[in-house]
Amino acid sequence: MAFIKLYRKKLEENYAFLDNIFKSRNIQWGVVSKLLCGNKIYIKEIIALGVREIHDSRVSNLKKVKALDPDIQTVYIKPPAKRSIESIVKYADISFNTEIYTIQLLSDEAVKQNKIHKVIIMIEMGDLREGVMGEELIAFYGTILKMPNIEISGIGTNLNCLSGVMPTQDKLIQLSLYKQLIEAKFNISIPFVSGGTSVAVPLILKNARPMAVNHFRIGEALFFGKDLFTGDTIEGMHNDVFKLYAEIIEITEKPNTPTGELGENVAGNSFSMNDVTDLGITSLRAILDIGLLDMQPQYLESDDADITIVDASSDMLVIDISNSKKTYKIGDLVAFKIRYMGALYLLNSDYIEKTIE
């Protein structure tokens, strides 16, 4: 059985690295836990780090966080669906919002539950996912201020998640100006300006963020130490907090080209002779006990640099071990580093065991 392993020491060191960055700059931050897909074993590891604010896009996951530690501030990080309003007010202390209609529903439900529900108003700043348009922000904010049992904790934006728009210094200055505009209009103070996700970490390291932007939501940088501007690992961080291990279930010397009439495979792809340079040559192939049901091959990188991933079917992954300096045998484990989206697939699979080192 294939399994994914979390390396506790590396996670702790990544967390300490980020926490020092944020605290030294008087920035508050929360951990985005959606990668963990509600796995209680791993959520406990996050809580053990000393995290006091956890963000997720699944209210069922926030419910698990509250069950483990009711004092942790939980944040629902996408505009709530109408059918989820009751549970969001119950299990999320804060939610990100972009619709007056939805916030009115949250207000009505918060009154029913005798709770104050906090909201962060998300502003559209070019990435074209969620967000109130800038020209509508003042009217929007004024309407929300009148709603009972709703507390506006701040404003925020989301960048790089849909269209790939990067959180430049100019973008964050624009966000800061929205804060100033609202405060001047309504004679209030906005506690939090949430400037984005892990993609903003390089700006913070360069001290290029405006001082008014005082909050960030971090997931990928914590688990993968990745600089999303360059694609490199941030110096001082680990890129292998998670690793995948899959067992070899077959090793056979086989031709590089299939024989017979060709059609589409289970993934809808067709084999092309143009992709093979060594026609008629064989290679030593190994089959691993994991497939497309649990992962996507493009998000995996073998620890053994001499291994080549050939392709995958629903339950098996084929690799070429011809050039490897290691002699593999049936039952051996092959280790892979995982990219963020690859980890999402794996952690969301009930068929992949989750372990801790």
From TrEMBL:
Alphabetized GO MF terms: alanine racemase activity; pyridoxal phosphate binding
TM regions (residue ranges): none
Lineage, highest ranks first: Bacteria, Pseudomonadati, Bacteroidota, Flavobacteriia, Flavobacteriales
GO cellular component: cytosol
Domain Alanine racemase N-terminal residues, every copy: 10-225
Cofactor: pyridoxal 5'-phosphate
Alphabetical UniProt keywords: Isomerase, Pyridoxal phosphate
Name this polypeptide is given: Predicted amino acid racemase
